[in-house]
Write a structure and sequence with these properties.
Largest sheet: none
GO biological process, one term: cellulose biosynthetic process
Shape: globular
Radius of gyration: 19 Å
Subcellular location: Endomembrane system
Number of helices: 10
Number of strands: 0
Distance between the termini: 33 Å
Number of domains: 1
Helix content: over 70%
Order of helices and strands: HHHHHHHHHH
GO molecular function, one term: cellulose synthase (UDP-forming) activity
Strand content: under 5%
InterPro entries: Cellulose_synth (IPR005150)
Keywords: Cell wall biogenesis/degradation, Glycosyltransferase, Membrane, Transferase, Transmembrane, Transmembrane helix
Structural class: mainly alpha
C-alpha cells in the first residue's frame, strides 16, 4: 500500500502541481522529443483499453469516469491512512481511530444517490485530504496558465504541457469536490470547517515552492 500511495502522490502532487507552480518539468522527455511518444502511448492506451473494457462489461463512459474518480480518492486517502497505521504499529503506538460517517438513508440522500451526486456531509479528515489536494491542483493549474500567458513564455508551455494536461485531468476528476465545497448547499456538501482548513492548507502548499 505504501508504494501505491507514494506513486500516486508523485503523480498528482509532485509532478503536475509542483511543476506548474515552480515552472519546472520533472518529465524524462519534453513533448518535442521522440522519447515522449512511448510515455504518451502508454497513458492513452491504458485509459482507452480500460474504458473499452468497462463498456464491454455493461458499464457506461460516465460510470468508467466515476471509477477513475473513486480510484483517485482511494489512492490519496485510505492508502495514506493505512500507511500511517502500519508505521504506528511498527512503533508500538495506538492505531488510527475513525469517525464513521452518517449512514442514515433519508429521502434527500436517496434522491442524491439516484442523481449520482457524491455524499460528503462530514468533517472527517479524509474529506479534508480530498479537498486539499483538489484545491492544490486547481491553484496550480490556474497559476501555471496565468504565468505562461503573462510572461509570453511559450517555450515553458512546451516543457510543462504534460503537467498542465495532468492538472487539468485531476481538476476535471475533482469537479464534484469543488461543487461540494462552493456550490452545493444540501446536507451532503462539504462542511464550511473542512472548506476553510482545505483552503488554508492548499494555499500554503501552493505558496511554499514560490517562497
Amino acid at each position: 500500500m505504501a508504494y501505491l500511495y507514494l506513486s500516486t502522490i508523485h503523480t498528482i502532487l509532485v509532478d503536475p502541481a509542483m511543476g506548474c507552480t515552480t515552472m519546472s518539468s520533472l518529465d524524462p522527455a519534453p513533448v518535442s522529443s521522440p522519447w515522449f511518444l512511448p510515455f504518451a502511448y502508454v497513458f492513452v492506451a491504458k485509459n482507452v483499453i480500460s474504458a473499452f473494457e468497462a463498456m464491454n462489461c455493461g458499464s457506461t463512459l460516465k460510470g468508467w469516469w466515476n471509477l477513475q474518480r473513486m480510484w483517485l480518492i482511494q489512492r490519496t486517502t485510505s492508502y495514506f491512512i493505512s500507511l500511517l497505521d502500519v508505521i504506528k504499529g511498527k512503533l508500538g503506538l495506538s492505531e488510527t481511530t475513525f469517525a464513521l460517517t452518517n449512514k442514515a438513508f433519508t429521502e434527500d440522500v436517496s434522491k442524491r444517490f439516484e442523481q449520482e451526486i457524491i455524499e460528503f456531509g462530514s468533517s472527517s479528515i479524509m474529506f479534508t485530504m480530498i479537498a486539499t489536494l483538489a484545491l492544490l491542483n486547481l491553484f496550480a493549474l490556474v497559476g501555471g496558465i496565468i504565468k505562461i500567458l503573462m510572461d509570453f513564455d511559450f517555450k515553458a508551455l512546451e516543457q510543462l504541457i504534460l503537467q498542465i494536461v495532468l492538472c487539468g485531468i485531476i481538476v476535471l476528476l475533482n469537479l464534484p469536490v469543488y461543487q461540494a465545497l462552493f456550490v452545493r448547499r444540501d446536507k451532503g456538501c462539504i462542511p464550511s470547517s473542512v472548506m476553510l482548513k482545505s483552503v488554508v492548507l492548499a494555499s500554503l502548499l501552493f505558496l511554499m515552492p514560490i517562497y
